[in-house]
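Example 340.
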Amino acid sequence: MNQKIEEILAAISELRANTEKEIEELRIKYLGKKGEVTALFEEFRNVLPEQKREFGQKLNVLKNAVQSKIESLKENIAETGAAKTSCDLTKPGDRMDLGTRHPISITREEIISIFHKFGYTVAEGPEIEDDWHVFGALNFPPEHPARDMQDTFFIHASDNPVLLRTHTSSVQVRAMEKMDLPIRVLCPGRVFRNEAISARAHCIFHQVEGLYIDKGVSFADLKQAVLLFAREMFGEDTEIRLRPSYFPFTEPSAEVDVSCNICKGKGCNICKGTGWLEIMGCGMVDPNVLEASGIDSKVYSGFAFGMGIERIAMLKWQVKDLRHYFENDVRFLRQFETVI
Ligand code: DAH
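Predicted structure in complex with 3,4-dihydroxyphenylalanine:
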């Protein structure tokens, strides 16, 4: 009898049941009229009087153990049953709101990846600059208006002023100082100008500067690079035109227009009826600029170009107000979700 009690005790600790029916079967197996525990109680009648006390206690322990095991199996089923109705663990999880890439970042990456194919690497430079890298080395005369407080943010104005760069051409100077020739580099970054904020102007915006210096680089190379870029950016049938212009750091200089991709050159309100949209400035690097950075202008020549990222993005997506790019209104930003 002792052995049978031990066996049942060991067995019940292992009991498992998934349904109420299975639990009921277990209850009958142990505690039913013909159950194993009930049978032991029957046997108890034949136990010698002096052993009754000991076996009586053991049998009661056994019966309690079986009953509490059955109760706990019932509770388990009730819990998982309740859980089943409120949560389906096989369902896919909720979609996480990851946000979107900013249109300026998307455009910046697109410009970089286009020029990457032509072998350009990326260089970055400081936003807080000195006069030499923003103006001096780029052939700006001392009385140039850009050197005025009206146009440039000065951190301190002295004989050796510290200022916020007004263009990323400053990084082209740093590239010429540091990099080995030939140089083929793109310089993206933020620039700062002392402008009143409006739909068409902002005191902070982004530019990408390009620079290519090697032996025998010509204006034809510049034109070809710009044409390939324009077609990759705005579509295969895009045409370009170069208008003569002036920048202190390039000679000759030009402004680049692309054929309007909205009206296909017919004239619309985006291109103001001209069929052309201005996208960048460019030119052959002035020999003075090469020499200022220690490059022999008799051996080397090069071209440079600079474009505003906001401007390119505006043309790509017809954004009419520059301020949208800085306000980070999610209703604006979410429109670029599918662009990436
Ligand atoms: N730095 C000029 C600007 O901010 C843009 C520019 C024009 C860059 C002509 C160039 C260039 O490299 O050749 O308006």
